[in-house]
Write the structure tokens for this entry.
Amino acid sequence: MKAIVLFGSPGSGKGTQAKLLTECLGIPHVSTGEMLREAVRSGRGVTPKTAAKMQAGILVKDEVVEALVEDRLSRPDAANGFVLDGYPRTLAQAEHLTRWLEARATCEVVIHLQVDYNVIIARLTGRRECPRCGTPYNVLLRPPKVDELCDLDGEKLVRRDDDNEDVIRARLDAYERQTRPVLEYLRTKGERVIAVDASNDPPEAVYQKIRRALEN
Ligand code: ADP
């Protein structure tokens, strides 16, 4: 079983790399952010308090995400492995995951996507997405051919609710205070942590670096 953990600040490209890994390795992309947004959209499985925390860029309760992840990882399509994106994000979550993996005699590989602060800000403030097909864009760094419209289906691009300045600041703050220490924890536990410079290269080049690191 391949357990790949993509680790990095908001805007480090975890989602993009997870999609590429999923396509090539044929294992599912497990994104806690996506699962939570879907739960909020469908109105099932999360309380209004959880939705409000997400809107504010604050981490939601460990038990909420742990339950979502456990449920997702137990499905048959994750039997041969998965790519975790946005989990674990606190020490308690990291301990929870370690226990889950140990019980299944599985090791994890942690890919740490390192990105300069200024690049992170440009990526988050410029980020847009096609609401129909999910194609990601960045109006500052990777704009669509026609202003604010999806290249593939012409749909008007949207900005995620939490991609505005105040909320971005809160998300980066949560990362520094609660998530960054997780990396040290995983290292001390003896997990393989591979740092990948993901600041300037296009996604495909970052992806090649990850593949090379995974093959070694
Ligand atoms: P980001 O771009 O900030 O990494 P995500 O899409 O991963 O965004 O997550 C969006 C929001 O969902 C977070 O700001 C947080 O409120 C919540 N969230 C996602 N993953 C977790 C997690 N592992 N633990 C707690 N909250 C989470």
Summary: The two ends are 17 Å apart (CA to CA). Residues 100 and 216 are 25 Å apart (CA to CA). The chain has a mean pLDDT of 94.
